[in-house]
Amino acid sequence: MIRRRRYSRIGLVLGxxxxxxxxxxxxxxxxHDAGIKPDVVCGTSIGALVGAxxxxxxxxxxxxxxxxxxxxxxVRLLDLRISGGLLGGRKVIQLFAEKxxxxxxxxxxxxxxAVATELDTGREIWLQDGSTIDSVRASIAIPGIFTPxxxxxxxxxxxxxxxxxxxxxxRGMRADCVIAIDLNNDILNGRDFGGAVVETPALDPGAxxxxxxxxxxxxxxxxLAPADARVTDDVRVAPPRSARVPSMLxxxxxxxxxxxxxxxxxxxxxxxxxxxxxxxxxxxxxFDFHRAAPAIEEGRAAVEYMLPAIRARLGMx
Length: 317
What we know:
12 strands, about 15% strand, NTE family protein, NTE, lipid degradation, PNPLA_dom, hydrolase
């Protein structure tokens, strides 16, 4: 029998990160295998979705479902629309709504909270009562990607804008030991867009300056120079012909990643977790929902790597 000597209420915090959130499944599995079962769970964005399913006792179903996802299935589930966001998310939300079957947060098998952000004010919103599926839908409403959600007279969007790894929420739920899972620690260091990375050669200080040229071979006037040219030492240099202009989705995705990383680091610096688990998911994009297997495995590996520290912190035999 495992005894908890130091803490009476363990909180599990599941951070946002879109498709990287499948790593939470492996992390929860590894914690359970080690005899560590949280008393409360909270999450932001995909962390709210996985956390709600976990709190409802349906983690087995979720793991089986995500393991069957293909890219074609993901495209069919993410319904394209124009107003409010690129994706309506109606189909995938309906799938989870059927699983929750009208269950309220109070009816879940363990205390749960989701984090969203009030669109008009930027205020952080903790969703701890009412419809489980409505709370999850609000928490995953990534601006520009999923449509905002009208909730109690205000528009709500993704909780990642205000609190991507909501340690403060777990503290508010009276957790005296917080285990947090941050999915975004290394995502700016290991991108995998399916193509080679193009590096611009360094300029030779002694070489004549390179400038962006028009088709007639003459340089552009400064005020007409192409916007995608690079400025170096007050000279505009054209990108190499092999450089690929980022697509709209990849530009949005990378912008979201940068935002998540910056906000996460700031919040965790002021509100540190007792135990911070950081899976290495740098090669996984936010839309790679069909790559569940490697994400789950990385989540498990990250917890197993931290187990000695976790056991020491919890004072486990």
